[in-house]
Hints:
By secondary structure, this protein is mainly α. The chain has one domain. Helix content is 79%, strand content 0%. It has 10 helices and no strands. It is globular, with a radius of gyration of 19 Å. The N and C termini lie far apart (54 Å).
Amino acid sequence: MEFDLTSAVFWVAVGQIILIDIVLSGDNAVVIAMACRNLSPEQRRAGIFWGVAGAVSLRVVLTIFAALVMNLPWLKLVGGLLLVWIAVKLMLPEDEDGHDIESSTHLWGAVKTIVVADFVMSLDNVIAVAGAAHGSLALLLFGLAVSIPLIVWSSQLILHWMERFPSIVLLGAALLGYVAGQMIFSDPGVVALLMPLPEWSAKAAGVVGALLVVMIGRWLERRILARQDVTIV
């Protein structure tokens, strides 16, 4: 995909990257708050700044690397299948235990906690954003440049929106399924096994992926909630 600011396709892809970042980065605010909660007010601001800076830098490097190797045979297939699992998991009720994040009483301990936790949590984001960029490094960097400040400065507001409007999570899961379907269908190894298909086939595969994620997610969600009701009774 070419870097064309006048192209509607380009801006749709940028919108996908931003929405993916918003949905999958909501937990980062919780990690930051818990890691810095025992610092003094002055150190807390510095811990948040340096922790976010380190985590964002690491994520950008990982995402660029993923985008560069994503066109190798079978990697998109593996990434797409993993993204389907991530999308379904996003729709399921969270564990009661929440995040097991250790707070720190000194600045650099909190920074290290934020960076390490973000590294562990960023696999889903890296795969999804790399897939939405369709192999375009320029689009990837532009989308990250737009979405990262949005997430850093409005993470608490984003968490509030996601709690108040569950449809945001559903929309995000469907988008991940759409990206996964396109990734799987455009994998060089998969394409080599198929007969030539029309151009709209990739979009159709994305729609099938989105519907599949929503249906599986809803089914598993109902089973989990029913099991919880039986346990409570």
